[in-house]
Amino acid sequence: MSKRRTTLINISQYLIILLILLSIYGAFIGAERAKSLFNSTLMIVLWVSILLIFIIGSVVFSSLRKNVSLALIHIAPVLIIIGGMIGSEKGHQLQKKYLGIEKAYYGTMLIYEGSESDKIYLDGNSFVQLPFSLKLRDFKVLYYQKDTLYLDAGGGDIQSYDLGDDSSIVFEDGTRLEVVKRFDNLRVDLNGKDRQIIDKPGEGLNYAAQVRIIYPNGKTITRYAFKSGLVSGGAMSADHISYHRTIRDYISSIDVIEDGKTIKTAEIEVNKPLHYGGYHFYQSSYDSKRGQYTVFSVHSDSGSMISYIGFIMLAVGIFWRFWFGKIFVFRKGLNGD
Amino acid sequence: MEIKASFLGVLLYSSLLLYAISAVLMTVRGVKIGKLLFFWGFIFNFSALIYRWVSVDHLPMQTLFEIFLWLTALVYPLSCFTKKYIDYDTFRLDVFIALVLVFPAAFVFDGSPRQLPPALQSAFFGPHVAAYMFSYVLMFKASALSILAMWSLNDKKNMIMAEKRSYKLVCLGFPLLTLGLLLGCFWAKVAWGRFWGWDPKELWSFISWLAFVLYFHYRYQNGTKRVLINHLLVNIGMFFIVVTLVWVNLSRIFTGLHNYAS
């Protein structure tokens, strides 16, 4: 190997070691500080050095140009880094300064059911106005069918009971607990002569269970268990009960409105964002008490496509190089590496 | 210590027992019967996995218990597969790997079933975790071969032969390690809006990947001239994998999106 090539490959290895050491440090300081570290000016120097090494490497090592799999493997990180730089916060600042492109890097959108919004809030009161708006038609939370009762038997001893089809639990002392009725959204109706416990699904998220506790001496009491815990006035050995459902999904049904017309309808869920107008809209949070508003985190799509192409090239190049270029050689035995 | 007093436990402890007897037999003598018991250990192990899959009603890749159940179940099939490609029978070594992996599933990790949270209900979930698990087992095998070779430092010929076998296993595992990392990036983009969040688990996965990138560059430059360093680099890569898989998931030092400690 020529001196020039040896120097270059040595530098590459030093850069990899440096990146490993910095990543180890980053792993100990937490995601937020690690993000600041890897986006700092000093790190930009490192990223640019890595880019240069890839470019110089493809000039010095002809195999990096001629061998397709090696070319893919070594061009891909260049694209991934460039895509990452364009999509970064600093990248957005530079695009605004030099190219006049004003695009929010990251923000949030809060929309109430039945209303619309065209503002991406960046921090506090500053916002970016979109040329279109999103209208929240409906927001719903879906739960798994299996639900659980948690019983605090005292002394911090909390036991969980998955409710089966018969929805009853029998304790060692013979006390029996039955779930009589489940509520998606328990409400107290005060309009009539007597107060009434009713279920109003879709108008809130106050799920609850009506439980009947039957003691060995025949005494029976009925109570309501909520996710927040205590069953009021309970007098059984385990008198603190809470009722839990596990969330399966959150769904925001929205309309994209541009110039007063509905351009698109979509359902935004976890793992199913909306991509529109240069932004990705993600289901991020919601009104956990009443289920009346949704919160989207909004991310700019700048640089994403370049990174996607880089990822695909890297995967194709590596499989090509290591599997299809070598597995067939493996069959010939150990001489063919 | 967590004892699983259930049908799943019966299957799991049966496989552990079979692996243990197989390891003893293959070490002392009786390789043939040892291999047969290794196979039956795998059958019980695989049955435990299927039973778990049916009982939780989703792909059982959510908890560390399930992950180790998978890792152990992959050892035997991958032993059969790699025997052909590295031209070397590693069953005797692999049964010990299976034992090491099945132990935490049997006695350490909580086996209670959990429902999949919305973030894990993704088409990326299975392929992302599966790619990592296949690669981890292959890297574990490569590392074990390297460690064994490093015991016989004076036998240079054996060191080189073992290094070539280890290299070929890394060549099989590295694309899957890359695939796991890239699918994770895609998934993060789809679920959270960014490819990379500088989360400790992401960083340790990246560190493991970089360690093997370093190994390939070093080996390209030096071949098998400094064979001991090649062996050491494979083990450094494996060390980072262990950190990623176990320490990061369980330690409260590395809090983040992938942490199980909380």
Account of the 3D structure:
- The complex is a heterodimer of chains A (337) and B (262).
- Chain A is 34% helix and 38% strand.
- Chain A is built from eight helices and 15 strands.
- With 262 residues, chain B is an all-alpha fold.
- Chain B is flat.
Characteristic key phrases:
heterodimer, A: 337 residues, alpha+beta, 5-stranded antiparallel sheet, disordered C terminus, B: 262 residues, mainly alpha, 0% strand, flat
Extended strand count of chain A: 15
Give the amount of beta strand of chain B, in percent: under 5%
Greatest interface (CB-CB under 8 A), with counts per chain: A-B, 57 and 54 residues
How many runs of DSSP E, i.e. beta strands of chain B? 0
Mind describing the biggest β-sheet of chain B? none
Short note summarizing the structure:
The complex is a heterodimer of chains A (337) and B (262). With 337 residues, chain A is of the alpha+beta class.
